[in-house]
Amino acid sequence: MTTTKTNPGLVLVRYGELAIKGKNRFEFENALRRNIHKAANEIAPCTVTKTRGRMVVRPERRMERVARRLQEVFGIASVSPAYAAERKIESIAAIAAEELARALEAFPNPDPIRFRVSTRRADKRFPMTSQEMNVAVAESLGPAIEERLVIDLKNPELQLGIELREEAAYIFATRLPGPGGLPVGTLGRGICLLSGGIDSPVAAWMMMKRGCRVIYVSFHSAPFIGDSSKRKIEQLVRSLSRFQPKSRLYSVPFTDIQMAIRDHAPESYRTVLYRRQMQKIAARIARREKAGCLITGESLGQVASQTMENLTCIGAATSTPVMQPLIGFDKQETIDLAQKIGTFELSIIPEPDCCTVFMPSRPIIRGKLEECEAAEEGYGLPELIDNALANADRIDID
Amino acid sequence: MSVTENKDGGSVVYLDNAATTPIVAKVRDKMLPWLGADWGNPSSRHSLGVKSRAAIDRARDQVARALAAKPERVIFTSGGTEANNLAVLGAARARKKFGTHLLVGPAEHPAVRDPALALFDEGFQVEVGELGPDGAFDLDAFLSAVRKDTVLVALMLASNEHGAIYPVSKVAAGVRRIAPNAHIHTDAVQALGKLDVDIVELGVDSVSISAHKIHGPKGTGALVLARDLPLRPLVFGGGQEGAIRSGTENVAGIVGFGEAVEMADQTLEGTNAQLSKLKQRLADGLAEIGGMRVLNPGGSNPSLGSIAAVLVSGPPAEVYLHHLEERGVLVSVGSACQAHKNEASPALLALGLSAEEARKVLRFSFSRESTDSEVDRALTVLRELAGELGAL
């Protein structure tokens, strides 16, 4: 709200792991820049420029909101709402005083504030050393220092940062952590099987975090289950779309397959067989979308279908690799992450999912692959899978 | 847009946009299906119901995005008044175990002040902040009224009577340090669409907004929370809106609200500059006429461009209002919500006006649809009236 038209501020973006990616670095930086551009422009019109080891985002307005939005963009280590100054001590000191005054608004009580200036000299040709700059700026703040601040180099509450770069000096008082990880889109694509529960959205998030673009598949069992289950899935995808520039959801009708399995396969194998058909369908979509893997939210031993044997039966349904980023998570760890990324409250809305249709009363605990394969023969499952794919809806969420 | 026809078929200049605004065509178009073929109850489990539910989801996203809030923290209500009542009564009652002291701003709308005062009967102590002698908001004085056991602080973001903008984010930062259990609420009904209402930057716990002040429909508003905070419902029933506000949702209204908020948010920057120019144009024109002036709502504090409180000379403002109307210019006296109360507005008295002067305040209020020529038309009429009424 304090942003003025004359100096609208910018957001300085730091990226961590990316900086060490060697020859691929340009590819990673370009992807990061694209993702930043898309996210930032949701808040306000912005330009994004790359400088050595940093991105500089210049929004027309709403610098603070843009900075907060960028905290969700994978590949970013941290961001700072900042102001640029000419590379002269007088300009730097003037902007520093303004930024300090703004920062002090967050400290309305009169107690002294532990404070320091921290200069980082990326351009080593600058005539002053970092230390000299720290002292010069701190001294220029004179009266403010005496009234409100005590210098504390080790444990400051308020740290005024200065980055001296070739094109300008950047001055900031806050440093907001980014999500880390790698830019979405730099490490291939995956197809995430989304059930509507707590786990699969977290699995999708973890894969996005490591640079994978996620495409979602969900299965529905109309008329056994109504439209509100579909709506819940769409809401989950929309919520997760904050983390990648565009999301696509395939909604696949699954009732015919479930009924065929109910009528022809041993009851105890139903759940395992459902999941095998889901993976076959997802693998077909993976081929269509040029995706390299499937992603599921499975955690070893969490439910009956997630024993080692059953996971093996399910995984063997296709030759496409299945990534299970939550495999070693306890339920509570997954819940904590779901809360952090904002999908938990949506996930716990009570809507039945298709796995609850015709549930076996005593599911098999240690399924055998040969029995799965035998139980899939002779009642036209491949045709039913073709049909399901032909009737799938594709929903693009921007 | 704000030019409509009066009963004689002449055009009317509408400068009462702080009372309400006309629904713009884009908003109305979005609403119509929900008044027609798509009439399902959002709580129904069949597809007709789910369609209505999805429309509300979308509107919730639109509102959340504009306020930088989370969609699941948007509670749709019947309007700004209910949203303010819910914040004050709901938060205070939920926090009674932490204390019983409430503090409300010096110029709050009755939708905030009166529910707070009503809590007196439930054992709360209610304190109303005071403005400085020049009508300026005194941050230190206001914060000095906050206590460790304060459980609710309400301060409007901008005044509906004279447009003063209050330093809500600074107040919020100050309150947090003194009263860790206080719920901090801001009434942003007038500010929405003119200021960047960013719930995170404001640092408050809740914000109330209304659709019909930003070219949306009447009967729809929202209380937006910063996070999952305790709130006692005022309306019990079917558990809609997270069981905080039961009652079948006003789907058409909510859809129109979402669209109106999104439009207001996108035009924010242009609107601000435009509105301030209109207010300045009115002030300059009045200075030329003499005997009337735009009230400065307090020292060097900023104010909204959308609202100009004008002190006239001679008869009460009500007389001017009817003369203006006769000549095709619609404005209000004080605030429309208080127009039927026969008492001087506390917010105007706080500017140092006498009770008699407070009755001589006309409110001109602009929207992004208002134009220079409308202001000029109002000035022409005011010039005539100054001659006819000014000496009475």
What are the key terms here?
heterodimer; A: 398 residues; Alpha-Beta Plaits; THUMP fold; Rossmann fold; 9-stranded mixed beta sheet; 6-stranded mixed beta sheet; elongated; B: 392 residues; Aspartate Aminotransferase, domain 1; Aspartate Aminotransferase, domain 2; 7-stranded mixed beta sheet; 4-stranded antiparallel beta sheet; 13 helices; 39% helix; globular
Summarize it.
The complex is a heterodimer of chains A (398) and B (392). Chain A is α/β, with parallel strands linked by helices and 398 residues long.
Question: Your description of this structure?
Answer:
Chain A has 398 residues and is an alpha/beta fold. Chain A has three domains: 80 residues, Alpha-Beta Plaits, CATH 3.30.70.1510; 92 residues, THUMP superfamily (THUMP fold); 209 residues, Rossmann fold. Chain A contains 14 helices and 15 strands. In chain A, strands 1, 2, 3, 4, 5, 6, 7, 8 and 9 form a nine-stranded mixed sheet that branches. In chain A, helix 1 crosses helix 2, helix 3 packs across helix 4 and helix 9 crosses helix 14. Chain A is elongated. Chain B folds into two domains: 137 residues, Alpha-Beta Complex (Aspartate Aminotransferase, domain 1); 242 residues, Type I PLP-dependent aspartate aminotransferase-like (Major domain) (Aspartate Aminotransferase, domain 2), CATH 3.40.640. Chain B has a seven-stranded mixed sheet, with helices on both faces. In chain B, strand 4, helix 4 and strand 5 form a beta-alpha-beta unit. The model of chain B has no long low-confidence stretch (mean pLDDT 91). The chains are: A alpha/beta (398), B alpha/beta (392). Chains A and B meet through helix 2 and helix 7 of A and helix 2, helix 6 and helix 7 of B.
